[in-house]
Amino acid sequence: MKTEEVKKLMIRSLDAEVSPHEIADQLENAGVSYDFSEGFGDKVIRKIFSVSLSVNHEVEFVRSMNYVFNRIALTGIAAIVILMISIFLMEGSFSLNSILGLGNSYDESIICMLTGK
Amino acid sequence: MESYKQTDDNELIKASINGDKLAFGEIVDRYRKLVARIVKGMLGDSVFSEDIGQEVFIKLYYSLPDFRGEAKLSTYIQKIAVNLTLNEIKRRKRFFSMFSQKGNSEMYEFEVADVDNQEKREATETVNRALMSLEPKFRIIVSMRMLQGYSTKETAEILGLPLGTILSRLSRAREQLKNVIEKL
Q1: Interface test with A, best of B4, B26, B50, B57 (most A CBs within 10 A)
Q2: Fewer beta carbons under 10 A from the terminal one: N or C of chain A?
Q3: Is B53's Cβ below 8 Å from some Cβ in A?
Q4: Per-residue pLDDT tens for B116-160?
Q5: Is 0.90 surpassed by the pTM of this model?
Q6: Is B117 left (phi over 0), alpha (psi -120 to 50) or beta?
Q7: DSSP H helix total and E strand total for chain A
């Protein structure tokens, strides 16, 4: 199709009574077509999935950290409970001294223990 | 290897959401020409248009979980393409108004790549030049009608504008296009 005919088609395409589909088809037949270069799809897929991969690594890391934290936290709570029970059994109360491991010793006896006098 | 050539859009969407590369690759293959017509019809034929085209599909991929299927996938893709292209036009306008004295002409590129036949090449170039000479708000409407065959109602739906606005822009675009074509 010659350039002049393409120009006429372009103007006709905006007429209200003309079917736009028809003009679009005619222009496409005249060689007016648009597409992206070869390998376009591969580039898109590569961009999306390489980003997804790094995001997945991050998610995996956070998940592992959560798992480790849960294990440590549970073990810690269990240790604290056992310690409290043992303190209660040994000292018979939860006073500050018993928690600090000072028992019922007097201040003077502590000074003696520390100074050796 | 699984082929998705016969699979409908809804199945492709589900598979793509689950991370199926082949399924999303099929969506890209199915709609790349549609996106190319919008992006290249509005920005001209250049590497920048390729970048915007890629951005359209990347954005589509990440917004697929939000796609409710109320509209056709093609309409959804077109909306993304139109929005990204209009944003690019605004960005270029800002850039060229800051750094250049030459005005709109250098904002768009006219090279027509990969067209073997001289006549076809000229036809595409004529359409490109005419489109690029129009104001962006007219260009999108003309390009959707002329290159994609959309009716005024469909154009209004995709652009999210009232039908009356599309009709008035179309009539003004027609005048502008006539003037532009006479000068080509």
Answers
A1: B57
A2: C
A3: yes
A4: 567 777 888 888 888 888 888 888 888 888 888 888 888 888 888
A5: no
A6: beta
A7: 5, 0
